Amino acid sequence: MAETNRTATLNIDGKSYDLPIFSPTVGPDVIDIRKLYSDADVFTYDPGFTSTAACESAITFIDGDKGQLLYRGYPIEQLAEKSHFLEVCYLLLNGSLPTAAQMDNFEGRVTRHTMVHEQMHYFFRGFRRDSHPMATMVGVVGAMSAFYHDSLDINDPWQREVAAIRMIAKLPTIAAMAYKYSIGQPFVYPQNDLDYASNFLRMCFAVPAEDYKVSPVLAKAMDRIMMLHADHEQNASTSTVRLAGSSGANPFACVAAGIACLWGPAHGGANQACLEMLREIGTVERIPEYIARAKDKNDPFRLMGFGHRVYKNFDPRAKVMKESADEVLDLLGIHDNETLRVAKELERIALEDDYFVSKKLYPNVDFYSGIILEAMGFPTAMFTPIFALSRTVGWISQWKEMIGDPALKIGRPRQLYIGEAARDYTPVESR
Ligand code: CMC
Predict the structure, then answer these.
(1) Ligand 1 pocket, 238 CB below 6 A?
(2) Would the pLDDT of 1 be above 80?
(3) Which of 308, 335, 336, 353 is catalytic?
(4) What is the pLDDT of residues 357-411, one digit of tens each?
(5) Using CA atoms, how far apart are residues 373 and 325, in angstroms rounded to an integer?
(6) Contacts of residue 23, Cβ cutoff 8 Å, sequence gap at least 6
(7) DSSP state for residue 244 in the 8-state scheme
(8) DSSP letter string, 284-340
(9) pLDDT tens per residue, range 206-263
(10) b vs e for 7-43, b when ≥16 Cβ sit within 10 Å of the residue's Cβ?
(11) Ligand 1 center from residue 403 Cα (angstroms)
């Protein structure tokens, strides 16, 4: 951690404590409270971590007021336009853009790891056919630690690297297998002369009985969706991966924990929930009814795909996603898409509504992604698995950063205890 001579003073019951203040490269200053408990015998209280920096990180930066997202300093809009997913993976994992030779080498290594251990095919068969693909993915990714013993030693940098490559390479295969299994079709093996996104589309939509040609425009849109979801600093699933990893758990188990967290509708599960909501609304005439429900304190309904803990101006990912939605629908000749019409009108009305404006609620990345994925032919249950396979590189980059940090400590929050004080056990006859 950098040196600092700035301090904040905290007064408690007439005693004062000086707390160091650190300045990040960009973003708000951070008050270091690590010694507060030992010095002052108090904890800080921040459920939901709204004001807490849980780690140092050099990977991703978000400025919620500006609507800015940077991967290793590069704006997401530039990457979405000029880069591609595997280059972004290299960037997130290693800190800088690759040279042509580095890219070749990285792509080659990822590509050679796309198949999964053949025995994993049998593992899939243990799941019910109607399992949600996220349920299958949590299980199968966790089970990778039972298949790849030679990359479990977290203290060996080479094994950490191999585990990272394996997960980036195999998650699309596993997600596609979860899908194929759920619809009763045979698994399609990866075809390594295809790029990453095309390979994934082929594994989802090809069948052995017919030829399947991947549309380059759809592959580009898929690649862009992956880039937009690749990392998002210390969000809930990434923090889950870090917390799991802080105990020394193996990387496959940690990423399985991240997938479990991502599944929730407040996080990655919002893309499925959002499309289901748009379909339920059905026509633009019914939008006011749903806006009213979202504003009603007594109704738990929320506009899915709206709002974000950090973005308070706009979500830059949503902007790119909206453009992609138009492109994909155009390509597929879908000019009369009622869901897109409902989405655009809902966005327009909400952005003029006092409730949403005053609470700074804007469409997030999940608002338009479902429309694109549905147009490509994915069922809603596959939306969150696609988020998961795209976020894997972010999880693993953050995990690698944490494990490589000599100051690593097990994550162990404290609490504001509101239960009973110590009391004596009473035998059942006298209760
Ligand atoms: N619809 C209606 N009201 C909302 C919404 C919404 N989507 N989101 C927040 N609010 C209200 C909320 O009721 C609260 O009102 P009040 O101050 O009167 O109690 C206020 O806005 C602040 O909400 P919060 O829940 O305290 O904010 P948060 O930062 O804890 O939650 C969120 C962020 C994303 C969980 C939340 O906005 C939400 O549930 N959105 C819908 C789900 C969604 O789209 N999630 C995807 C997030 S982006 C993808 C990802 O990174 O996972």
Answers:
(1) no
(2) no
(3) 308
(4) 999 999 999 898 988 999 999 999 999 999 999 999 999 999 999 999 988 999 9
(5) 9
(6) 2, 4, 6, 29, 30
(7) H
(8) GGGHHHHHHHHH-TT-----TTB--SS-SS--HHHHHHHHHHHHHHHHTT----HHH
(9) 999 999 999 998 999 999 999 999 999 999 999 999 999 999 999 999 999 999 999 9
(10) eeebeeeeeebebbeeeeeeeeebbebeebeeebeee
(11) 32
Per DSSP (E only), the strands in 33-125 are: 60-63, 68-71, 74-75
104 is catalytic: no
Write the single-letter amino acid at 294: A
Confidence of residue 169 (pLDDT cuts 50, 70, 90): very high
**Would you mind telling me the total number of residues written for the chain in this entry?**
431
Confidence label for 333 from pLDDT (cuts 50, 70 and 90): confident
The finding on whether 235 has its CB within 6 A of some atom of ligand 1 is yes
> Mapping DSSP to helix (H, G, I), strand (E, B) and coil, where does residue 50 land?
coil
Q: What is the best residue among 234, 267, 308, 320 to mutate for testing ligand 1's pocket, by most ligand atoms within 8 Å of CB?
A: 308
Q: Which ligand 1 atom lies nearest to the CA of residue 306?
A: 7
Indicate if ligand 1 lies below 6 Å from the C-beta of 232.
yes
Side-chain half-sphere of 261: how many Cα atoms within 13 Å? 20
| Ligand 1, pocket-test mutation among 231, 315, 361, most atoms within 8 A of CB | 361
Ligand 1 pocket check for 306: Cβ under 6 Å: yes
**293 close to ligand 1 (CB < 6 Angstrom):** no
167-178: average pLDDT: 98
- On whether the CB atoms of residues 360 and 408 are closer than 8 A, the answer is no
Predicted pLDDT of residue 324: 86
361 lines ligand 1 (CB under 6 A): yes
Q: Is the CB of 230 under 6 A from ligand 1?
A: no
Can you tell me the distance from the alpha carbon of 315 to that of 306, in angstroms, rounded to the nearest whole number? 10
In the numeric block, which tokens belong to residue 265? 């509708």
Residue with the smallest CA separation from ligand 1 atom 35 is 266
315 is catalytic: no
